[in-house]
Amino acid sequence: MTAIDLIERKRDGGRLSTAEIGWLIKNYTSGSVTDYQMAAMLMAAYIHGLDRAELFAWTDAMLHSGDLLDLSAIKAPKIDKHSTGGVGDKVSIPLAPMVAACGVAVPMMSGRGLGHTGGTLDKLETIPGFTTNLDPNTFARILSDTGLVLGGQSKTLVPADQKLYALRDATGTVPSIPLIASSIMSKKLAEDLDGLVLDVKVGEGAFMESPDQALELAETLVGIGQAYDLKVVALLTNMDAPLGREVGNANEIAESIAVLAGGGPDDLVEITYALGSEMLQLAGMAQDDEAARRLLRAAVDSGAAMEKFAAVIEAQGGDPRVLDHPGLLPKARYQQELPASRTGYVTLCDARNVGVAAMRLGAGRERKEDEIDPAVGISIVAKPGEQVDEGQPIARISFNDEGRLAMALPLLKRAFHIASIPAGQPPLILGEVRS
């Protein structure tokens, strides 16, 4: 078989066999199939989709393109969580220590930010010394020692996905449900998990802007899990407005620390506890939502969750003093306030505009190779539903470059709508799919 034969067939709406997909992924990973050939295939798959058999074959070929983690020596139930990406979505950072403090092993493998959505790895690396670049043996050792590891994808774990993810971003084929689902699940299946909780974001700041799209993605993800006998729960959560009040990197770590200390914004706390509850129930640590939330609250109130975070920070080379002294995190040189244009109620804080504004400040990447400025970001002073007076600050911008500020300000101004009467706010959790 040749790559051009497979590309032409998929281009014309045909289907590929399991053997053909296996050959394609194997040879793309090794370099025998070129980037430009795979780019053509990705566009054909984006346009025509992958049927159920093709999707499972594509996922399996990616899964077996490199190493698989062997975590069988760890006796605690192994449960991970994954988000499809949003603005201000720092949930994994407080969530993982809270769940691990309840006795669950959490091998959390996260990604970097690209475009308007932030990345957990970028946020964690604002902690002085913290490293997320862990080989499989180190990943497993830290998980065994602490019950928690917060790492990235290694070069040998699902290498096909590493290549394909960058290529999808460069070719406009990111928002494809089969390609998103196979990317997520190939990495999660490689982790030797007992269960997986998914946070499928819906709205202006998400890749899936409509509930129907998000539901289809959730059902696809859960279906792949079922094929591998992996217990999966997917929650559909609202991403029309940023989650929490901080958008950036270091400032999101500070907000995560506040949640672990028993504070934090209500919306961030609610999503964190909802996902944590599902993780504990999948692990068999709690029989229902009420019991799970009691365990999570006890982990926070006792300080056990914060201690777990300190332990993993130290294990991964970071400085745990940031938990008591957030001032050790990077700080921007300048701040500027965005005043309310009128008196009234905030009815909209558009997540996509806020996310792109933060990216233009330097908090995110337009291209994979762009450097992150860990100190810059946006603090949302007035969230949707809150009352403001004309001239009152509705956001604070932390920046290091006036040119970048000038690019970000127009977007941030457009993100806020203020009306004379309050608007009803949609629920945070919009639906669920279970295996």
Shape: globular
Q: Taking strands numbered 1, 2, ... along the chain, how are they ordered across the largest sheet?
A: 1-4-5-13
Q: Share of helix among residues?
A: 40-55%
Tally of alpha and pi helices: 16
Output mean pLDDT: 95
Query: Architecture of the largest domain, CATH level 2?
Result: 3-Layer(aba) Sandwich
Number of domains: 3
CATH fold-level topology of the largest domain: Pyrimidine Nucleoside Phosphorylase, Chain A, domain 2
Can you characterise this structure?
Helices cover 45% and strands 15% of the residues. The chain is α/β, with parallel strands linked by helices and 435 residues long. The protein folds into 3 domains: 3-49, Up-down Bundle (Transferase, Pyrimidine Nucleoside Phosphorylase, Chain A, domain 3), CATH 1.20.970; 79-326, 3-Layer(aba) Sandwich (Pyrimidine Nucleoside Phosphorylase, Chain A, domain 2); 331-419, Pyrimidine nucleoside phosphorylase-like, C-terminal domain (Aldehyde Oxidoreductase, domain 3), CATH 3.90.1170. The protein has a 4-stranded mixed beta sheet, sandwiched between helices. Helix 10 (211-227) links the parallel strand 4 and strand 5 (231-238).
Topology:
Elements lengths: L2 H9 L6 H13 L4 H14 L3 H12 L15 E5 L8 H9 L5 E4 L10 H5 L11 H11 L1 E4 L7 H13 L5 H13 L5 E8 L8 H17 L3 E8 L7 E3 L1 H11 L5 H17 L6 H13 L2 H12 L18 E6 L4 E6 L1 H13 L13 E4 L6 E2 L4 E7 L2 H14 E4 L9 E6 L1
Parallel strand pairs: 1-4, 2-3, 4-5
Antiparallel strand pairs: 5-13, 6-9, 7-11, 8-10, 8-12, 9-11
Descriptive tags:
435 residues; alpha/beta; Transferase, Pyrimidine Nucleoside Phosphorylase, Chain A, domain 3; Pyrimidine Nucleoside Phosphorylase, Chain A, domain 2; Aldehyde Oxidoreductase, domain 3; four-stranded antiparallel beta sheet
